[in-house]
Amino acid sequence: MPLDRSNFYYPDGRTDAYTVIEINMMQGRTPATKKALIMALVQNIESVLGISPTDLEITIKEQPKHCWGFRGMTCDDVKDLTYQVNV
């Protein structure tokens, strides 16, 4: 969500490209998987968009499966997911 410069706090040493990314996901990924995601994002954002890693802040927020609702049920009740969460 873009903010007017006067409404956004930039930490020292950051440029106008300073970007905050928040990722919401179900619990179950290993620390190594989450670290790999962060590193891949940093590398791709730098190479494709030219935003320096210094200007990136990435936060992963996890919730238990029972806190995710879709298709009229919570994720802990879904039996037909086609992807693995515990990686």
From TrEMBL:
A Pfam family matched in the record: Tautomerase_2
Superkingdom of the organism of origin: Bacteria
InterPro entries for the chain: Tauto_MSAD (IPR037479), Tautomerase/MIF_sf (IPR014347)
Official protein name in the record: Tautomerase family protein
Origin species: Pseudoalteromonas spongiae
